[in-house]
């Protein structure tokens, strides 16, 4: 029994040792070749100084052909063994679709234990080797029939080791390079459209949150275009200078925090939440300054700072929601989507979950979804402000309007008439005034009641509106008395207007529910103002004198008061 157990232990020990030194082997038996999911070996070079002969003796671990080893694997070696079992030589292309975001790549091709070829790709000088095409590094392989070839690939990343290998025949290689980054171009295009829209909104409204949101969008689209290869694909730009654009990963949350402060007006209404946002904003600004000098080092704590920022912004939005802010629920929804997809991305970048499209593109998806929700928040806020403005306008209208007649009231007339007089004075235009009073109106109320009196007043108000020009200013001056200011009208024009009103009232009959309809008349006083010397008050006094004359002359008539002649002292 003891011998049997010892033999089993030795067997499993030998099996474990064999597994450690065994290579992940890729068997190719015939064309076509379209390999995007297979096993490879990797080794993390913590010293960042190992060369090909030294790394061959190291113990490799196995991983998928698409992998993320995290931010602590700046230099990683990948090994894949290709066995050609076909009866013909195969010409293949090895694609590294994420090569655009690394610092350098080295290829070592080994056959029968002998190095047969090596290539070095420096992303600061990609044209020297001709290995880069639209953001992908392409290494051409020729596999002799019935032979094995081992490839070592050294990847030196700026920050995180996000790596993928694909193996294609020539036809599939061409297909793989068609339509690269179409999904990313769609994301960037959507955000670019939002940028222009919000800049137009800023010019229309002068709201600073539109500027912050536009800057947030610009930072987001720059990072998406850079990190997912659109910049490399469209412009063939790589290396350290382009890697500096990763500063947008820091500016994006800075502008998001500023946007929150502006859209929620935290400084004015939520001082505690404002201080919390400032607490996160300060280290982010420090990271940005740090990144100007050492972007790779500045990005290392980015995940931790992003976690703190997400916690604070979520807490602030929940607090604002509890305090009844109408925009907080929409921001919370958009930010939760952003946090969800960014959490997947962080787990992917740290190598804690298996690579997939959603995880590898999590930051981009989260940015776009949150950007769309922030755009909705801006639009919803504009709608709220329009409702408030409409409500305020309605209150102003009610404050300036007589509720019975819908004519302007005395207070509005006093303020507006003075401005119209000044305007006519500046333009050297004449100004006239008409005052009107319902004859024997007290008898109407006493005989037929106040409801009948209100009908009379409403009807006469409608006649005043009908007989006045659009530029005229009719108003109910009090009780049964009315006044009209006529800009750009002389005394004769005012008299004609007053006569039209008088005759129209005289012809009117009011049905008050009795056999005989009610009949009333109107007395009117007219004057022309001396724009050089008169005020509205002096004009009202003369118009009132003319109205008094009409009353004493028998009512139901129009009288006028001349502008008093003025002599110099």
From TrEMBL:
Q: Name one GO cellular component term.
A: plasma membrane
Q: Where is the GGDEF domain?
A: 429-563
Presence of keyword Signal? yes
- Residue ranges of coiled coil: none
Q: What InterPro entries does the annotation carry?
A: 7TMR_DISM_rcpt_extracell_dom1, 7TMR_DISM_rcpt_extracell_dom2, Diguanylate_Cyclase, GGDEF_dom, Nucleotide_cyclase, Rev_trsase/Diguanyl_cyclase
Q: Any idea of its EC number?
A: 2.7.7.65
Q: Which SUPFAM superfamilies match?
A: Nucleotide cyclase
Write out the entry's keywords from A to Z: Membrane, Signal, Transmembrane, Transmembrane helix
Gene3D superfamilies, per database record? 2.60.40.2380, 3.30.70.270
The GO terms describing molecular function are: diguanylate cyclase activity
**Transmembrane portions of the chain:** 184-204, 211-235, 241-264, 276-293, 305-321, 330-352, 358-379
Q: What is this protein called?
A: diguanylate cyclase
Q: What broad taxonomic lineage does this protein's source fall under?
A: Bacteria, Pseudomonadati, Pseudomonadota, Gammaproteobacteria, Pseudomonadales
